[in-house]
Amino acid sequence: MAANSNPHDNTYNSTTFSGPVKAGSRRQPVPTYDRDTVPGTVAVTALPNAGYAICSQSAAIEQTSSSESVNNIVLPSGSMIISIQIIVTTAFDATDDKDLGVCSSPEGDGSVRFLGGYAKLGVVGVYDYGDNSNWTTTTFTDYYANRWKDVSYITGVVAGDSVDIRTDAGPGGSQTGRAILTISYIPGLHLLT
Amino acid sequence: MSTTSFAGPIKAGDILNTIGTTLSDDVANVGFATMVQVYSLSQASADPRWTDIVIPANSQITRMAFLITTAGDTTSINIGRYDSVSTSYSWFAETVVSTAIGLKEVEGSDVTDASRWKDVGNKDCQITATWTDSGSSSGRAMLIVEYIQNNNLTA
Which of A85, A134, A149, B133 is the 20 to 30 A CA-CA neighbour of A56? Predict the structure, then answer.
């Protein structure tokens, strides 16, 4: 067996769906009910209990001299981002700790739209990008939050278009930083669009 | 975009049962897909407020978080459960800070009773929330609840 070969290569199959995958024993919505009455006006045993399977996409990230490095992460229109993880395998060392920002650059818009600030990734480890206390500028603005809530809310994204995710490593340093970026999301919720 | 739905938990792995001791050969490697439900909370609503989040019985909660899009004017949100037979609330988390925009993870001292996270119980669990309104009613957030369906843990 060759090094790094997968012992399951012959048995792994991939099952792919075009839309969200849900699971639960009840899936049909109940007409509007009174949420202010205790106990509830509709028994919990009659309410839908189906949830969404979380989808994730990952890409290898390099600290490069050019900004807006293109990754292989493309999110369906209207998706909600629920977490972003960065696994740093080689420490970043950009000037002023502006190691990595996660962003998008919608087609035809020409501008970079960030999902948060620049994360400080100067030590090998696992980082939660949603933790704004680790950003160089710590303010989590409402436009960042709304872009997480619905990626199609990003300025310049055309309704119905997929959204490409990019990263921007700040300037300076030896540019040897390496990481794996993973975005977890619910496809196609369209909470704002 | 079409939706595909299943009644029971979604699992993946190519060795379904353990019939030996050799990894990659005869030791089960099947895992659960983690599920998620979200609900839009408003500080202006009356407490307690029902959410549309209903967790299937015997599920394990793996994460609760708030994506706060408008900061609240009080410091705390409580996340509760409803067992469908009483008016009592058994909190999953209490006094979660809500006064800043951003992703607020429920963790550490926010968690009231870890056993409720381990297994929500033998009935479906409708999630409730309270978000004290001190006047401005400004707060808005998405409640995110991740879970493993019907994991049915005992420990």
Answer: A134
User: What is the pTM (predicted TM-score) of this model?
Assistant: 0.91
The answer to whether A35 contacts B65, with C-beta atoms less than 8 Å apart, is no
Residue B7 lies in a domain: no
- Domain CATH code at residue B104: 2.60.120
User: What is the CATH code of the structural domain delimited by A55-186?
Assistant: 2.60.120
Q: Is residue B46 part of a domain?
A: yes
Task: State the best of B27, B34, B41, B124 to mutate against chain A, taking most chain A CBs within 10 Å.
Answer: B124
Give the residue ranges of DSSP H helices in A59-185: 142-149
115-134 in B: which are within 8 Å (CB) of A? 123-126
- Spell out which residues of chain A touch residue B146, defining contact as CB-CB under 8 Å: 54, 82
List pLDDT tens digits, range A93-150.
Answer: 999 999 999 999 887 677 889 999 999 999 999 999 999 999 999 899 999 999 999 9
**A5-30 confidence digits (pLDDT tens):** 888 888 888 889 888 999 999 988 77
Range of the domain at B65: 34-148
